[in-house]
Amino acid sequence: MAGSAGRVVRRWYPNVLRRSLQVPALQLHVSKTAMRASQKDFESALSQVKLLKDPGNEVKLKLYALYKQATEGPCNTPKPGVFDLINKAKWDAWNALGSLPKETARQNYVDLVSGLSSSSDSSSQVKPEADRKQPGYETLVVTSEDSITKIMMNRPAKKNAMTTQMYNEIMLALKAASKDDSAITVLTGNGDYYSSGNDLSNFTDIPPEGIEEKAKSGAILLRDFVDCFIDFPKPLIAVVNGPAVGISVTILGLFDTVYASNRATFHTPFSHLGQSPEGCSSYTFPKIMGPAKAAEMLIFGKKLTAAEACAQGLVTEVFPDSTFQKEVWTRLKAYSKLPPNAMRISKQVIRNREKEKLHAINAEESRVLQERWLSDECTNAVMNFLTRKAKL
Ligand SMILES: CCCC/C=C/CC(=O)SCCNC(=O)CCNC(=O)[C@H](O)C(C)(C)COP(=O)(O)OP(=O)(O)OC[C@H]1O[C@@H](n2cnc3c(N)ncnc32)[C@H](O)[C@@H]1OP(=O)(O)O
């Protein structure tokens, strides 16, 4: 079948499977008994079915059963043995149609193929990215394609600094991705930065209740945000397209895989900002890279190159910037074809025993940071940045 975009859709009934299922329906042979009022529709459905995208075994069995019923009538062949799994499944499907009249079976076959064709038409077209973009996000571009949900931070002019709105939108996007039919989820950044971390202007928006209330709501937001990463059920991959700062670095310890461009750097300047570690990094970083290397990053704000971050286990693999996107997305597309349930379960087995501990650490880090935000050290550092006296 040619899709409405004029693109030929791959055949879903491979020869091997067709042989093993012995589905004569797909040989474009129509028996005389089926040649009645809806013969033309039936023939056209038989042609169409060969060009559909793979509708899955359940539907293929339905099609098989309806074809047999339409052309041969009720099933009266001997039931295959229990170990002849494929033929038994086919026999069961046909037998389940009981005494359904041939004409009704033929009509049902035509209706089923017609339904499959229209859904295949709409899903087989290559849509431009603007069309695939999920609506409702202002600070992100969220797309789902090839079983991959991609969450892209989209404030390139501000180096993808994370505003309160961006934290909330990332939480929403993760919650949606955890329930959609994608196999893996990716977080990445648009432009030259992955992310410059917390948007320091978040500190300027003080509510009438005062600065304490601001720190309190910031700590709740931080805790909720990090909890979403701790609990995310599917493989989560960071595609670090450029420099990463602050919270965009610390949460990497909660990802399953981190791919980085060789242009990326990893920097957590908490002491410079009068702040303290978050994103569970006080636990994950010493575990990943050892306490001495973790202290250099988290206490002294040492900036790591991508190669250093990889050597210390924070990054899975580094790619040359010139081929970064191509190589990483080729790899991810291949991974996304692996059985999704197996991947989820493997992630659970790897991560679940740490979950409770991570939630407790997140709560504690958020509580400490809430106090830090009220300190003179933090206020001065933020003021310095916002009045352009200091750049990290
Ligand atoms: C509620 C949860 C709280 C969780 C807490 C998390 C802690 C952290 O994440 S700590 C890390 C905070 N981040 C920083 O301190 C980075 C600050 N930014 C910089 O030092 C520099 O901007 C840069 C090194 C990232 C980039 O420098 P560069 O010279 O290349 O570009 P700029 O001209 O400085 O930036 C362009 C544009 O973007 C604005 N911007 C960049 N980062 C931030 C940021 N983190 N917060 C607010 N705004 C940021 C920058 O001001 C420029 O804006 P204008 O063009 O309007 O001047």
Give an account of the 3D structure.
With 392 residues, this protein is an alpha/beta fold. It has helices at residues 15-21, 39-49, 57-72, 85-95, 102-124, 129-132, 164-179, 211-231, 247-250, 281-289, 291-298, 306-311, 324-335, 340-372, 376-386, and strands at 140-145, 148-153, 184-189, 236-240, 244-245, 257-261, 265-267, 304-305, 317-319. The strands form two sheets. It has a six-stranded mixed beta sheet with strand order 1-2-3-4-6-9, with helices on both faces. Strand 3, helix 8 and strand 4 form a beta-alpha-beta unit. The longest helix has 33 residues, at 340-372. It is elongated and about 85 Å long. It starts with 14 loop residues before the first helix and ends in a 6-residue tail after the last helix. Ligand LG6FSS7D binds at residues 158-159, 161, 196-201, 218, 221-222, 245-247, 273, 275, 278, 385, 391-392.
Query: What structural class do you assign from the helix and strand content?
Result: alpha/beta
Biggest pleated-sheet summary: 6 strands, mixed
Strand fraction band? 5-15%
Distance between the termini: 57 Å
Bound molecules: ligand LG6FSS7D
Task: Please give the radius of gyration in angstroms.
Answer: 28 Å
Mean pLDDT: 88
Give a count of the beta strands, DSSP E runs of length 2 or more.
9
What series of H and E elements makes up the topology? HHHHHHEEHEHEEHEEHHEHEHHH
| Gross morphology | elongated
Low-confidence stretches: 1-34
Number of helices: 15
Strand order of the largest sheet: 1-2-3-4-6-9
* Helix content percent band: 40-55%
Organism: Panthera pardus (Leopard)
Domain ACB: 38-122
Main location: mitochondrion
Subcellular location: Mitochondrion; Peroxisome matrix
